[in-house]
Amino acid sequence: MTGLDAVHLNFSPGALHLLNAILGIVMFSVAIDLAPRDFRALLRRPKSLIVGFASQFFVLPALTFALVSVLHPRPSIALGLILVAACPGGNVSNFFTHRAGGNTALSVSLTAFSTAAAIVLTPFNIAFWGSLYGPTRELLHQTTIDPVQVAITVVVMLLIPLLAGIALNQARPDITARLRGPLKWVSMGIFVAFVLMSLAANWGYFLQFVGLIAGMVVLHNALAFAGGYGTATLAGLSPYDRRSVTIETGIQNSGLGLVLIFAFFGGLGGMAIVAAFWGIWHIIAGFTLSTLMARTEAAR
C-alpha cells in the first residue's frame, strides 16, 4: 500500500493527446443539444441552476475533504479523490437524468455552466482542499501544478467544443439533428474503450491496488449522490429538479481528471487508479440509480 504513492502508470504523450481529443468530441456531442434559449430560460429562474452549481463545486469538495479527514487514505488516493471532486460534472449525467425522468434541460445546462466555471474552480478546489489536508499538501508541494495551464487545458478540451457545438446547433439545426444520436453513443463508446485500453496497459498495477481503492471510490461516489440529493432537498427544489442535481453531483468528469493527473502529476498511481475506477463505477452507479428513479414519475 505504501508503494502506491510512488507508482507512476504507463501513459504516453500520444495517448494523452488522444484522450484530449476524445473528451473534446464527448463535450461537443453534449453541446449540440444546447441553444442560447436554454440558458436564457434558466437565467430567468436560476434557483435550480445555482443550487446544482453549489452542490457540484462547493458541497462535494467539502464532503470529500471530510471523507479523507476521517478515513486518512494514502496521500495519492486522497488527492485523487479531491481532484475528481474538483472536476465539473460528466456529460453522461445528461443521459442518466433523462433516463431517471429528471429535468434534462437543467442537467445539460449544469454540465455546460460547470464546464465553463471549471476553468477557474477546478484548479482552485484542487489547490485549496488539497492544501488543507497535510499529506496531500506535501504531494502538491512536490509537483508543479500551474492553475493557468490547468485553465488552458480545460478551455481546449471542454469550453471550445462546448461553444462550437452550441454555435453549430444555432446555425445548422438540421445537421445537429442528424448528428445528435449517433455522435453521443459513438463518443461515449470511444471514451469507454480508451479507459479500458489504458487499464489494460497498466493491468498489473490495477489488479494490485484496485482492491484497496474500490471501496473508497464506491463510498465517495455514494457520498456525492447523497450530497446532491441533500442539497437539493434542503433548498426546496422539486423532485423533478432534485433528480437532476443528484445525478449531476454524482457523475464527475473523471476523463478530465485523468488528463490533469497525467499532465500535471506524472500519472501518480493512487490518483490515476482513483480516477480510472471512478470512470467505470459512476457509470454503473448512475445507470442503477436512474433505473430506480424511473420507476416513479417526478413531480414538477
3D structure, described in words:
The protein is mostly helical. Helices cover 82% and strands 0% of the residues. It has 13 helices and no strands. The protein has helices at residues 13-31, 36-44, 47-71, 75-86, 92-100, 104-132, 134-142, 147-171, 173-201, 203-234, 239-250, 254-264, 269-293. Helix 1 (13-31) packs antiparallel against helix 9 (173-201) and helix 4 packs across helix 7. It is globular and about 50 Å long. The mean pLDDT is 82.
Which helices and strands occur, and which strands form pairs?
Blueprint: H1 13-31, H2 36-44, H3 47-71, H4 75-86, H5 92-100, H6 104-132, H7 134-142, H8 147-171, H9 173-201, H10 203-234, H11 239-250, H12 254-264, H13 269-293
Helix pairs in contact: 1-8, 1-9, 1-12, 3-4, 3-6, 3-10, 3-11, 4-6, 4-7, 4-13, 5-6, 5-11, 5-13, 6-7, 6-8, 6-11, 8-9, 10-11, 10-13, 12-13
Keywords:
300 residues, mainly alpha, 82% helix, globular
In brief, what are we looking at here?
The protein is 82% helix and 0% strand. With 300 residues, the protein is mainly alpha-helical.
Gyration radius, rounded: 18 Å
Shape: globular
Q: In which range does the helix fraction lie?
A: over 70%
State mean pLDDT (0 to 100 scale). 82
Largest sheet: none
Helical run tally: 13
Portion in beta strands:
under 5%
Total number of β-strand segments? 0
* Helix and strand composition category: mainly alpha
